[in-house]
From TrEMBL:
<dbReference type="GO" id="GO:0004386">
    <property type="term" value="F:helicase activity"/>
</dbReference>
<dbReference type="InterPro" id="IPR027417">
    <property type="entry name" value="P-loop_NTPase"/>
</dbReference>
<keyword id="KW-0067">ATP-binding</keyword>
<dbReference type="InterPro" id="IPR006555">
    <property type="entry name" value="ATP-dep_Helicase_C"/>
</dbReference>
<keyword id="KW-0269">Exonuclease</keyword>
<dbReference type="GO" id="GO:0016818">
    <property type="term" value="F:hydrolase activity, acting on acid anhydrides, in phosphorus-containing anhydrides"/>
</dbReference>
<dbReference type="Pfam" id="PF00929">
    <property type="entry name" value="RNase_T"/>
</dbReference>
<dbReference type="Pfam" id="PF13307">
    <property type="entry name" value="Helicase_C_2"/>
</dbReference>
<dbReference type="GO" id="GO:0008408">
    <property type="term" value="F:3'-5' exonuclease activity"/>
</dbReference>
<keyword id="KW-0808">Transferase</keyword>
<dbReference type="InterPro" id="IPR006310">
    <property type="entry name" value="DinG"/>
</dbReference>
<dbReference type="InterPro" id="IPR013520">
    <property type="entry name" value="Ribonucl_H"/>
</dbReference>
<comment type="similarity">
    <text>Belongs to the helicase family. DinG subfamily. Type 2 sub-subfamily.</text>
</comment>
<dbReference type="GO" id="GO:0003677">
    <property type="term" value="F:DNA binding"/>
</dbReference>
<dbReference type="InterPro" id="IPR012337">
    <property type="entry name" value="RNaseH-like_sf"/>
</dbReference>
<keyword id="KW-0235">DNA replication</keyword>
<dbReference type="InterPro" id="IPR006054">
    <property type="entry name" value="DnaQ"/>
</dbReference>
């Protein structure tokens, strides 16, 4: 090895016959770097003397004919060894490339013992906010040249660019930060810490202009807000200033928002998907209000982050309006907890790498929101230990820089505040002044109903809590406490067993009485969460389950019989807007009524069909009540196999996890590659794999009906296996049905059926998010045309979509022509 001041790096990429350790090398690409300059490149094909698989040929573009003319590895081994023997070996996933090349060289008599550096792990540490770290993803994020991906020299050159960017970023770090990183750097793969060791020698001291050092931590210094600019009273002018084109429907909707501002009554506005409604309500309202605050509440944290990163960030950058997004405290890092974690030594390599990642992230984040760190899944429990609890001691070294405290204070002064429905309800319950006399917008307001219901419930992770009780039983308790704890454990185990065996989720009254009696006699602090769950006003109790990181979690839930009256829950505000794709749930049931508003202003735009999305109804699919679950799966799989021949990505939506898994099993038997929610990861994980092209077929349920947008594919097929009716046994559905009967309304025709249609429309809209997209939707549930209520569904869909009811073979032919 040469001196570190004269260090050379060999950036290597190999293409091979497979990803296994026994693979044969078929292509080598090498880029030599010295003094941050590329000084030499090398590339060669290698004849493996074996036939390539179709997958490898499609991935790399390398053919058997091409390799037949290439040299054997023994012929190129001396040149490769001479080129890299005195270099640091760098690769994107260095373990594979270095091991495979070293083994091939060893068989030719060359012993490669160079230090190794892995750019995957370095990118994970030094670019903590990226979602993906494949070379293709990093090339897009960092503008690396990767024009011929999966050829060895192109990948090596892109990796060389990545390495130089990483090296430059490390060398720009303040010395104080590097000194905190180095004790953790041995947890990096192989000799990847070389970059940090070399950087420390010439590292700059901390710039007080850019950073602030507090306690053990160095944080980004937040720059002062620029003076804000006034918006024009003309919507089209404001849109133009943002560099956007005015859309006719968007401008019309903005006028509805402006008109509503003149009326003190709540405004309920109906907005179709795709018209750009966020700008259409933000710009008119920001132009009208001066001293007041505009608060926008959205249903999920994911949507909150999307709007903040897109529409609001653009408004803030152009008009310099003070904008802020706030979530509940546990979304933010608690700096005291992280500082304590740094003081502790961990043997776990992954935790130490996460510590390094957070040290870098703290130099970049303005919010302290842990959702900015994308790769938390592998050790979520570590991040849970760093989450804020909403409390900060005045004696804390970090009191003045605490992210949650700063967010809380900034929320009071920002002209535009973005929040999510769940945190909004929690905050207003504790602090009515939070929204008094302000302008308030609820986006996707139809989801407020479920948020209100969840707000009036409690839920307990019973899987985790049973482990807490087990640990508690090992403590020094008196005999009576031990017996009572045994009884409590037995009763909880019994209801879980019954749930697994019978699928009945509701707790019988006898079980509730026994558990309440146990808790009444057991005055242990550790049981407080369970005691709160069984306290008044909760009267109904049930179990539910979900897959969490491939593990089945059981939850104990409690609910109350009455509904939260949202109108009376709110203090007096200046103006209320409720914006939704559908406000009239049925002729007799309106969202405003369900939220407690008797007086309101209602407005919307005429709905128009789009030519970019068509719906086909399969007339040859048997009625669901005529099929067993296995037969239903066979009919579905038969259709999916034929749709796959069209070569387009396919999203298949199920209303039942069991049905989804049965279809998945039959696809596996048929040897069909596919992704299944729960089986292949969480909803977000399988969606990401699907959009990256890991499979053309995705089976999903739950979140995919309303929360996942598919933007990447220009052409897509969506298959809806069953109409998404609510489970009639669901606690909320039963409560709503009881309320509607008391009001003389039909629970089915006035609520369940129209709500199902709304959910169906939302699902159809998931695969049509851009003007340039085309989406074919196939509905397999014949109730649309054969059930007594089918006409209601058909007419509702026909108002917004082009419908065609055909035999499946005819549907297939029409879908193929439509997606050309």
């Amino acid at each position: 090895m040469t001196d570190k001041n004269d260090r050379k790096y060999a950036i290597v990429d190999l293409e091979a016959t497979s990803a296994s350790s026994s693979a044969m090398i078929i292509q080598v690409g090498i880029v030599i770097i010295k003094n941050d300059q590329i000084i030499e490149t090398y590339q060669t094909d290698v004849n493996p003397h074996e036939k390539l698989t179709q997958h490898i040929t499609e991935l790399t573009g390398i053919t058997d004919k091409q390799l037949a003319l290439a040299p054997e590895f023994s012929q190129v081994a001396p040149a490769i060894y001479d080129l890299i023997k005195d270099c640091v070996f760098v690769a994107h996933n260095v373990k594979f490339d270095a091991n495979l090349l070293a083994e091939h060289l060893f068989l030719e008599g060359f012993d490669l013992r160079t230090p190794r550096v892995d750019t995957v792990e370095l990118a994970q540490v030094f670019y903590p906010h990226f979602e993906k770290y494949s070379l293709t993803s990093l090339a897009a994020e960092l503008q690396l040249d990767l024009t011929d991906a999966h050829t060895a020299i192109a990948d090596a050159q892109a990796t060389a660019q990545l390495f130089l960017k990483l090296k430059k970023k490390v060398e720009a770090l303040p010395k104080e930060v590097l000194e905190k990183l180095l004790p953790l750097a041995d947890s990096l793969l192989f000799e990847s810490r070389i970059l940090l060791d070399d950087a420390l020698i010439k590292a700059p001291l901390l710039s007080k202009k850019d950073y602030v050092e507090t306690g053990q931590l160095v944080l980004r210094r937040i720059k002062a807000q620029k003076d804000s600019r006034e918006l024009s009273q003309d919507f089209s002018v404001n849109i133009a200033l943002l560099g956007l084109d005015v859309r006719e429907k968007q401008e019309a909707f903005a006028q509805l928002v402006e008109d509503g501002f003149k009326d003190s009554r709540p405004s309920f506005l109906e907005a179709q998907t795709g018209l750009g409604k966020t700008y259409a309500y933000l710009l008119p309202l920001l132009s009208k209000i001066s001293g007041e605050q505009l608060i926008v509440s959205v249903p999920t944290k994911v949507l909150q982050d999307q709007i903040m990163a897109n529409e609001i960030q653009k408004i803030e950058s152009v008009f310099h309006i003070p904008c802020h997004s706030i979530k509940g405290p546990n979304n933010y890092i608690k700096l005291d907890a992280f500082a304590e974690s740094l003081r502790q030594q961990h043997d776990n390599r992954l935790i130490n790498r996460y510590k390094m990642q957070i040290l870098i992230w703290l130099l970049e984040t303005e919010t302290g929101d842990l959702d900015e760190i994308q790769q938390k899944q592998r050790f979520e429990s570590y991040f849970d230990s760093l989450r804020h609890d909403g409390k900060i001691s005045k004696k804390s070294l970090y009191a003045t820089v605490d992210f949650w405290q700063k967010s809380y204070e900034k929320a009071k002064t920002s002209r535009l505040l973005l929040i999510n429905h769940a945190y909004f309800l929690e905050r207003v319950q504790d602090d009515k002044a939070f929204i008094e006399k302000k302008v308030l917008v609820f986006d996707e307001a139809q989801k407020l109903l479920l948020n209100l219901e969840n707000f009036s419930r409690k839920s307990l992770d019973l899987t985790y809590f049973l482990s807490v009780i087990q640990e508690l039983s090992s403590k020094n308790l008196n005999l009576l406490e031990k017996r009572l704890l045994e009884s409590l454990t037995f009763n909880l185990d019994d209801i879980v067993t019954q749930f697994h065996q019978t699928s009945k989720n509701r707790l019988p009254s006898q079980a509730i009485s026994r558990l309440r009696q146990n808790l009444l006699e057991l005055n242990l602090a550790e049981l407080a969460p369970l005691r709160e769950l069984f306290a008044e006003p909760f009267s109904e109790f049930w179990l539910s389950s979900e897959m969490n990181q491939e593990k089945r979690q059981i939850y104990l839930n409690a609910g109350r019989d009455d509904f939260l009256d949202f109108k009376h829950f709110l203090p007096e505000v200046k103006k209320l807007y409720f914006i939704s794709a559908t406000l009239d749930i049925s002729p007799k049931v309106h969202l405003a009524q369900l939220l407690g508003f008797r007086e309101a202003v209602f407005a919307g735009l005429p709905k128009a069909k789009t030519d970019s999305q068509h719906i086909w109804l399969d007339s040859t699919m048997p009625m669901l009540n005529q099929l067993s679950s296995a037969e239903y799966a066979q009919e579905t799989v038969w259709r999916l196999l034929r749709l796959l021949r069209l070569g387009k990505p396919i999203l298949v939506l199920f209303t039942s996890v069991q049905s989804m898994m049965t279809v998945s099993q039959q696809l596996e038997k048929a040897g069909v590659s596919h992704l299944t929610q729960g089986k292949n990861g969480s909803a977000s994980k399988v969606k990401r794999k699907f959009e990256e092209g890991a499979s053309q077929l995705l089976l999903g349920t739950g979140a995919f009906w309303e929360g996942a947008d598919f933007v990447a594919a220009d052409r897509m097929i969506e298959v809806i296996t069953r109409l998404p009716f609510d489970n009639p046994e669901d606690f909320f559905v039963k409560k709503m049905n009881s309320r509607l009967r008391q009001e003389g309304k039909s629970p089915f025709y006035d609520y369940s059926l129209p709500l199902m249609i709304l959910r169906l429309k939302q699902a159809i809209g998931r695969t049509m998010r851009r003007n340039s997209q085309r989406s074919a939707v196939l509905i397999l549930d014949k109730r649309v045309s054969h059930a007594s209520y089918g006409d209601v569904i058909y007419q509702a869909l026909d108002k917004e979509f082009y419908l065609s009811e055909q035999k499946f073979t005819d549907c297939l032919a029409e879908i193929e022509n439509f997606l050309i």
